[in-house]
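Late entry, MU-OXO-diiron complex.
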Amino acid sequence: MKTRKIKSDVSWLGVVDWNRRLFDALIPLPDGTSYNAYLVRGIDKAALLDTVDPAFWDVFKKQLEDVETLDYVVSLHAEQDHSGCIPQVLAKYPAAKVVTNAKAKGMLMDLLALPEDRFITIQDGDTLDLGGKTLEFIFTPWVHWPETMCAYLQEDGILFSCDFFGSHLATTDLCVTDQAVVYEAAKRYYAEIMMPFRSIIRKNMTKVEALDIKMIAPSHGPVYDQPAFILAAYKDWVSDAVKNEVVLPYISMHGSTQQMVDGLVNSLVEHGVKVHLFDLSVTDIGKLAIALVDAATIVIGTPTVHVGPHPSVFYASHLANALRPKLRYASIIGSYGWSSKAIEQITGLIPNLKVEVLGTVMQKGLPTVETYTELDALAAAIAKAHREDDHVAT
Ligand code: FEO
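Prediction complete; structure with ligand written out below:
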């Protein structure tokens, strides 16, 4: 794709990666992604903000053909999908300097072997005057690495946010055309990447909301020319409020756990609780992560394999623990043939979840009438806890 103008003397450069389906060899990308860079030309100087994944240097190089001189490469984030072409850019423009913060400088030297004399180190709030275009640097750590920052183009009100507010979405749209589609992609991105840093992001939100933002230009997904909707979405996601919802990831091997899950879902629905059900043998873990953004409760369902939980449940539990969602309640249900330590093992996997456990139901073999009575009682306890909790929106 050719470069695209987003404002006078501000251009999008980058790559739409239509076919990428996995990020960090971990995160599913059902809708591909993009790596966005931006070129800001002042009267005196020109600055490139970030680069693209190094696999796409050939594409990026062509987009830079018309850029005769470059004074600065601003690095907002050291991860290689944005920094990976900085060595080639520095080779193409021998006078250009990398402008970044001290933490990012160290990381770029470690990750890309950049020489120290190519850096200009800036502090939080510093500005870079390009001549009629002024970049102000806003430190926004932990979105999602410790060195991450934003740059605010004062004259145009554009916030270059790198991963912050980004979405893994391959599209030819330069700006958002369908807010519902981008909302879903941005929520997936937040859930998988940002959610563990919710409290710090809340502080970062206060910083960026003090700016007069007319446009947010992230490094993944389309540009927000009406940024209010993504700012409101982030405020909701990082708040302490949860919804009257249960996330229920589970596996069933021979049907016993499946029957228990079905019984619990029926009871929860009768009690007015919404359920997000995920059979871990088929689900995309990104969908599970999205549901964890808002839910008040997680119920983990597992059969017993070699005394412990099924390995897929083990993985999902570890993931939920790592993502640190704002869950308030938890429960474990499942089945076993002769003995089980699944409850103890799952409990040991989720220390980061600051939840109240509302009971567990483990059944030897098929569920009985008594099992369903226990599941009804569990559903009633969940519904009651949601009703009585001020953090749960009902
Ligand atoms: Fe898009 Fe954290 O890199």
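The longest strand covers residues 33-41. Will revisit in the morning.
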